[in-house]
Amino acid sequence: MEYRRLGRTELQVSLLGVGGGYTMLLDVERGVELYQRAYEQGVNYFDGRYGDSSLKIRPIIKQDRGHFVVGTKTAETTAEGALHRIDEDLKELDTDYLDVFYLRSYYHDVLEKHLAPGGSMEGVLKARKQGKVHFIGLSGHGDLSVLAKGIETGQVDVVIFPLNIVRREALQQLIPVAQEHDVGLVVMKPVSVGMIPARLALPWLANQPIHTMAPGMSSLEHLEMDVAALERDRMALSPEEEAEVEHYRQELDRETCRICDRICKAACDEGLMIPPLIHHDVFYNQYRSLGLEGFLNHPHAPWVKRAAESHFARRLAMLQSCTRCGKCEEVCPHDLPIMDMFEVMLEDHLPLIEALKKRDWAAKYKDAKSPYLQISRATGGAK
Ligand code: SF4
Ligand code: SF4
What is the tens place of the pLDDT at every residue in 60-79? Predict the structure, then answer.
């Protein structure tokens, strides 16, 4: 596994990391197994703070704390709130320090709150003085000019942001500024929520000026595929692969939501949250990539099985409440065919909900606790 220096942090990170968004769907035992296998494969960057991901990460990092680079996040915008979250993370991970603590900075007004007097940046700077946090990060997934602006403050060591074959705006909007300040570059959504095959997506990214990439993984097979994609003699893409990259870019350009959600939300009289419906709902993405049988047979955590039917029923109700007024499509800067995408989902939700009803998981797993409650119990109170 190749290692790169994470910008000015001097931390050495494996080119492949593990994102936490999908390991959250596994029970603790299987999650620990996945992180352990990742460790054995040379992976040392773990992106945390999703559901009970800390419980899965902590027995692994205990084996050699200094080897691992763990990042956690908060959306808190006050100093007090950020400090509280840092203490929670330390407790959940059973560690003395966090390598990188990211402030979620999706919009300019949120960044301003982080940076204002009494804002979360003050809290993180205090935690850094206390040794609880080693490096400060910003996390963003829509308007990347927010992260670029944050970097200009000189206080930011690392950024985590989307970059993939389809979404390349970071190459112009963010990476040059980050390079100027020697800021660490961690990529999220490298396979664009499962829409691009890892064998192509990951080597393409390895050729970009980034330090690590953290795809979501929900099985050992996923992990092995990702590792295999980066363990090749020659990372440069062949002409055939370049052609395939271009094919995916063109094919997915008008299907890929850029999560600039305030634009379409403001246009929708029904108040529908379009990006989670069409792009970044972990349950739906899991279904989309595994298919019906794959989803039903995947070793999901009991709480996922309990929640699946109601989750998809809620989504279906939202899709059905769309009046097909077309206002969201008029404002979408990327010309996404949102209403057609809804039609596809209306069709594929019905068989899944029917199959989930037949399995009766909601009743069978009714006592399965959410990961947040499991964390609370395991850490003696921290949420
Ligand atoms: S649907 Fe279009 S406007 Fe809405 S968040 Fe996605 S890309 Fe942006
Ligand atoms: S088409 Fe549907 S999602 Fe789009 S603005 Fe109209 S009601 Fe909202």
Answer: 999 999 999 999 999 999 99
Is residue 378 in some structural domain?
Answer: no
Which range marks the domain in which residue 178 is found? 3-241
Instruction: Kindly report, residue by residue over 288-322, the tens digit of the pLDDT.
Output: 989 999 999 999 999 999 999 999 999 999 999 99
Domain-embedded: residue 372: no
| Cβ 346 under 6 angstroms from ligand 2 | no
Between the CA of 258 and the centroid of ligand 2 the distance, in Å, is: 17
Nearest residue to 68 via CA among 91, 50, 95:
95
* Beta pairing, strands 12-14 & 3-5: antiparallel
Q: Does residue 276 share a domain with residue 229?
A: no
Model confidence at 149, pLDDT cuts 50, 70, 90, reads very high
142 lies in the same domain as 24 = yes
Is the beta carbon of 263 within 6 A of some atom in ligand 2? no
Cα dist from 372 to 1, 92, 304, whole Å: 33, 11, 13
Asked if the structure places residue 383 within a domain, the reply is: no
